[in-house]
């Protein structure tokens, strides 16, 4: 089975197999009991209550909360490492997933298409909803084997606006906080987010922050104070429409 989520989305990132080592202490039950107690007390600080989680635990509910009344086709951009298109298809939505890399799973309500998010191979007004979850920030940087291009993120949003029907919904999430760019992602501040969404009409922006691996909703000012160079993370979750 292929991995289609980064480590930490639904499970602890600390995964060590101690079975063989534990068996060495079977002949010393008292010592084994004391060591087990010490291990539990130590691991409690890591695992209770904090499962190290990615932003997917916030993003996926955001998507489903905003699909009410949708009956037309949904485009999921950048779906290669995501469970989301299969989850949406399993709930009866008609999904087309686009990624520069092939998608490893199949579903009757899901069609995977290999393509460039900066040049979507679809006609204008083809979709009722376009979903782009933690993908816009990577487009044009070439980290995932996709084409490199200056302002690839803005080109992708222009394409999203083009393939949406009038009044159609765009559900977009991106890293938020101090503006920065490295060799694989961008982080947007408030003005950068407005600039990014230019071709669309943002109807509602939500924000979430992660501290010590725990994601919670937050305000825009609190999210804007986060630096992705540090231990904390913040994201913007955008519900936008095509004017």
Low-confidence stretches: 1-19, 46-52
Strands, count: 10
CATH topology descriptor of the largest domain: Rossmann fold
Sheet with most strands: 8 strands, mixed
Question: How many structural domains in the coordinates?
Answer: 2
Q: Figure out the total of helices.
A: 7
What's the overall geometry?
Answer: globular
Rounded average pLDDT: 86
- Helical residue percent? 25-40%
CATH superfamily of the largest domain: Vaccinia Virus protein VP39
Supply the helix-strand structural class.
alpha/beta
Side by side, the strands of the main sheet go: 3-2-1-4-5-10-8-9
CATH architecture heading of the largest domain: 3-Layer(aba) Sandwich
Give the terminus-to-terminus CA distance. 42 Å
CATH class of the largest domain: Alpha Beta
Give an overview in words:
It is a single chain. Helix 4 links the parallel strand 1 (74-77) and strand 2. This protein starts with 18 loop residues before the first helix and ends with a strand. The model is unreliable at 1-19 and 46-52 (pLDDT under 50). The strands form 2 sheets. It has an 8-stranded mixed β-sheet with strand order 3-2-1-4-5-10-8-9. By secondary structure, the chain is of the alpha/beta class. The radius of gyration is 21 Å and the shape is globular. The protein contains 7 helices and 10 strands. It is 27% helix and 26% strand. It has 2 domains: 1-52, no CATH class; 56-241, 3-Layer(aba) Sandwich (Rossmann fold), CATH 3.40.50.150.
